[in-house]
Design goal:
With 232 residues, this protein is an alpha/beta fold. Strands 2-1-3-4-5 form a five-stranded parallel sheet, with helices on both faces. Strand 12 and strand 13 form a beta hairpin. The longest helix has 14 residues. The protein is elongated and about 55 Å long.
Length: 232
């Protein structure tokens, strides 16, 4: 089931949007503004964000810009209810993927949501494989030749992020901002999660978690139990 975060300052409109999306079978996560949206992202995997423009504390433009700065790639659909072309321009410059201008038509909302999910291939991105090891977002499960293991959400999210791009270095700040939110945790928390994952998968023949000194972490592939490209 796809999960959609709806960030909208108008309570009545927010409830209407949530009702339309839930009626189509989506799991909906409401937020009254951008700051609350980031709180939801801290604990929940989200496939797509629908956001309004005018919100207290952090508006739709600020939220989208902050998402992109933190390397969140999930699609963002902006609701420019006023129909103002300046809102449209500001939205795309901030990093939105699509926009509805004027009053929100339920059918148009669903069409655009479906198109964004299809365009970004979110179904495929809910699973990733490295060697014979498969990670499944829907169940937070890692499957290997030796069996299955369900992980706590933060540990799974960390491993999924690294394993989905083997060889790519992710900085500590990138990881912390995306998985815990801006300034939400200390470096020590990340170190603890990395240590737990290394202990869990120390005998995994497909991958290894590598520390890149002074930068961050990456996952490297193994071939016949030997790490490939591990040197730094």
């Amino acid at each position: 089931m796809f999960q959609i975060l709806v960030a909208e300052g108008d309570r009545a409109l927010r409830a209407r949007l949530c009702g339309v999306l839930a009626g189509q079978g989506y799991r909906v996560i409401p937020a009254a503004d951008g700051l609350e949206a980031f709180d939801r992202l801290e604990d929940t995997f989200v496939d797509l964000i629908v956001t309004g423009v005018r919100m207290p504390h952090m508006n739709g433009f600020e939220m989208t810009r902050a998402l992109r700065d933190a390397h969140y790639e999930l699609p963002v659909l902006l609701l420019a209810v006023s129909g103002d072309r300046a809102d449209l321009s500001s939205g795309f410059r901030a990093g939105i993927d699509d926009c509805i201008r004027g009053a929100v038509d339920p059918e148009e909302l669903l069409w655009r949501v479906e198109a964004l999910l299809r365009r970004t291939r979110q179904v495929c991105r809910r699973k990733t494989r490295i060697g014979a090891t498969e990670l499944d977002w829907d169940t937070l499960t890692v499957r290997t030749a030796g069996g299955e293991m369900a992980l706590p959400q933060k540990e799974f999210g960390l491993l999924f992020k690294l394993a989905a791009s083997p060889g790519r270095i992710f900085t500590r700040r990138q990881i912390i901002d995306e998985l815990w939110g801006f300034g939400r945790t200390a470096d020590h928390t990340l170190d603890v999660h990395i240590s737990r994952l290394r202990e869990r998968f120390r005998d995994n023949p497909d991958f290894e978690l590598v520390t890149v000194r002074g930068l961050g972490y990456k996952v490297i592939c193994r071939e016949h139990g030997r790490a490939v490209g591990a040197s730094q």
